[in-house]
């Protein structure tokens, strides 16, 4: 897999260090909640990032997952499809959406609105990666690990054709892999 990577954009050490800082910031901002924070990971890409953050929390929290899709190959098609909804209610809860990357913003904007429609009291977004050059809608994460250029990246949960998720870093995938 490493041979398909043009360059490492963010190292494993950089990710770990940034996750520690994000977790501290999140802890401070949610420390006075009267009920557990509902942390929702967007499957599948958010799993490594969510695990890295959660293991550092001392605040009460619940976890759940949603699986949504809007990509075909390397392009966002804009239609957000829910493949797996929450198992529990978010009515009246503070929700923290954990996302691997915000690119066009269409998916995360739709998901955030879904939570408000389901009765969430507050909805915040934490994203490992933000790619503002790709943005097509007005949405920003409340917490961002790294801002990256408009390149196709894989690793640390991000995939191409279900491959590369297990790389411990974020790297730029060689175009020769996906332009065959």
TrEMBL record:
Its EC number is 2.4.2.8. Signal peptide: none annotated. It catalyses: GMP + diphosphate = guanine + 5-phospho-alpha-D-ribose 1-diphosphate; IMP + diphosphate = hypoxanthine + 5-phospho-alpha-D-ribose 1-diphosphate. SUPFAM superfamilies: PRTase-like (SSF53271). Keywords: Cytoplasm, Glycosyltransferase, Magnesium, Metal-binding, Nucleotide-binding, Purine salvage, Transferase. Purine salvage pathway enzyme that catalyzes the transfer of the ribosyl-5-phosphate group from 5-phospho-alpha-D-ribose 1-diphosphate (PRPP) to the N9 position of the 6-oxopurines hypoxanthine and guanine to form the corresponding ribonucleotides IMP (inosine 5'-monophosphate) and GMP (guanosine 5'-monophosphate), with the release of PPi. This is Hypoxanthine phosphoribosyltransferase. It comes from Floccifex porci.
């Amino acid at each position: 897999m490493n041979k398909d990577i043009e360059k490492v954009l963010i190292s494993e050490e950089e990710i770990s260090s940034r996750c520690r800082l994000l977790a501290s910031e999140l802890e401070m901002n949610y420390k006075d909640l009267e009920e557990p924070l509902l942390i929702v990971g967007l499957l599948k890409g958010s799993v490594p990032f969510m695990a890295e953050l959660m293991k550092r929390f001392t605040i009460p929290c619940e976890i759940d997952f949603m699986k949504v899709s809007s990509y075909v190959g390397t392009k966002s098609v804009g239609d957000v499809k829910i493949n797996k909804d929450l198992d529990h209610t978010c009515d009246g809860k503070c929700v923290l959406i954990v996302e691997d990357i915000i690119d066009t913003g269409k998916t995360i904007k739709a998901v955030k609105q879904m939570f408000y429609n389901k009765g969430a009291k507050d909805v915040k977004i934490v994203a490992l990666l933000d790619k503002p050059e790709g943005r097509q809608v007005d949405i920003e994460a409340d917490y961002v690990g790294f801002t990256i250029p408009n390149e196709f990246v894989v690793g640390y949960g991000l995939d191409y054709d279900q491959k590369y998720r297990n790389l411990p870093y974020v790297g730029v995938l060689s175009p020769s892999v996906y332009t065959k």
